[in-house]
Amino acid sequence: MPPPAPTAPTALTVSELNRSARQMLEGRFGDVWVEGELSGVSRPNSGHVYFTLKDDQAQLRCALFRNRARFVGAPMRDGDLVRVRGRLSIFEPRGDYQLIVEAVQAAGIGELLAAFERLKTRLADEGVFANARPLPYPPRHLLVVTSPTGAAIRDVLAVLKARWPLASVTLIPVPVQGREAAPAIIAALGLLNRQAMLDPSRDAILITRGGGSLEDLWAFNDEHLARAIFHSRLPVMSAVGHEVDVTLADFAADMRAPTPSAAAEQLVPDQRELATRLALLGSRLERAQSARLEREGQRLDHLKARLRHPGDVLARQRTTLAQLEARLARGMQGRLEADRHRKRHLTARLAAHSPQRQLAQATRQLGTVQARLFAAIPRELARQRERVAGLARELQAVSPLAVLGRGYAILEDDQGGVIHRAHDTQPGQTLTARLGEGRLRVEVKRRHQR
């Protein structure tokens, strides 16, 4: 009798296994606090937030559902260092091990961003970010340093083809992510600068790639790459990531564009705009030319109307000359006649005022005045004598000397003062008596009262 067949072990379905694992994780850990750096933050239209929490050795997928995400005040950005509270679980349909986040707290800036800021400050102090050379517009030969399979080169070529089909472009394929990216880009820059010495038409470099996480773009924060861009003899434009992404390559480059498409738009003009402008300028030129021709035609007509035959001009000038000669002859004759009349008038005036006549008249007047003078002098002398005699009689009548002549005397003291009263003298005082003729010195012997 053959031995019985072994019983097959009971097998769990995938759903059962994931469910059991989820229940074990949720029952074993409960709520936990985890600290790490944010990476790959995603916000779909559902309102949930998905991200990865990592440190230097491990990663943990996290999910922050919409009903909890609305209570997070600070923005969650790649590179931020945070502390989250949640419970461990498994997403059963995919078997993903994840942390269901209930709360998020900022724990400080992430290590990558801290290192980025330190390096940025040091390079800025050294002058690595001082480049500001203008790029040729449009460049004769554009050298694009990027991944040959990325969306960046497709966007650049599409924009260049639409805006400026004449652009000459050379792709320099390099990795744009990972450890080998920065050395490859540095080597490409060195090669392009050496080749530019042999081919001067190569006049601009574009370093570009599409968007990504902070880790994806970290190669463009390499210190040696920033220095290589700074020392490039050819001007460099950097267009790395999306508009919000900024790398050290952007700071070291001569120009920066927010996206690869924007870089292509800045490098070349738009042929449609140029065509429109050219058509507008052509229309303006035609209008200006027509207006100028009309203006010059009118001017020509005006000049033709003014233009006369030389014979007519000479005849008109001969007539004018004859008229001027006649006017000159009449003027000269009138001037001579006026001068003759003026001469006759002046001669008559001169004859009327002859010096001989004036001298004879003055002589007659002098004789008359002299005779009158000689007759008037004796009469005036007699009249003045009579007047002086009358004045002498009047003076004699009022003169004190006349009183003295009648026997009176005037007594004066030594100072010449007149003595009016006996009381004004003193016995023994010497006085002067003024008489009609002469003077006497007298002495007062005694005073008598009236």
Structural write-up:
The chain is α/β, with parallel strands linked by helices and 450 residues long. The chain folds into four domains: 14-109, OB fold (Dihydrolipoamide Acetyltransferase, E2P) (Beta Barrel), CATH 2.40.50.140; 114-269, Succinyl-CoA synthetase domains (Rossmann fold, 3-Layer(aba) Sandwich); 275-301; 403-443, no CATH class. It contains twelve helices and 13 strands. The chain has a five-stranded mixed beta barrel with strand order 1-2-3-5-4. α4 packs parallel to α8 and α5 (181-198) runs parallel beside α6. The longest helix has 44 residues, at 355-398. 17% of the residues are buried. The model has no long low-confidence stretch (mean pLDDT 86).
List the helices and strands and how they pair.
Elements: H1 14-29, E1 31-42, E2 49-54, E3 59-64, H2 66-69, E4 80-91, E5 96-109, H3 111-126, E6 141-146, H4 151-163, E7 168-173, H5 181-198, E8 202-209, H6 223-230, E9 236-240, H7 248-252, E10 255-256, H8 260-267, H9 271-306, H10 310-352, H11 355-398, H12 400-405, E11 410-412, E12 430-434, E13 439-443
Give a quick summary of the entry:
The chain is of the alpha/beta class and 450 residues long. It has helices spanning 14-29, 66-69, 111-126, 151-163, 181-198, 223-230, 248-252, 260-267, 271-306, 310-352, 355-398, 400-405; strands at 31-42, 49-54, 59-64, 80-91, 96-109, 141-146, 168-173, 202-209, 236-240, 255-256, 410-412, 430-434, 439-443.
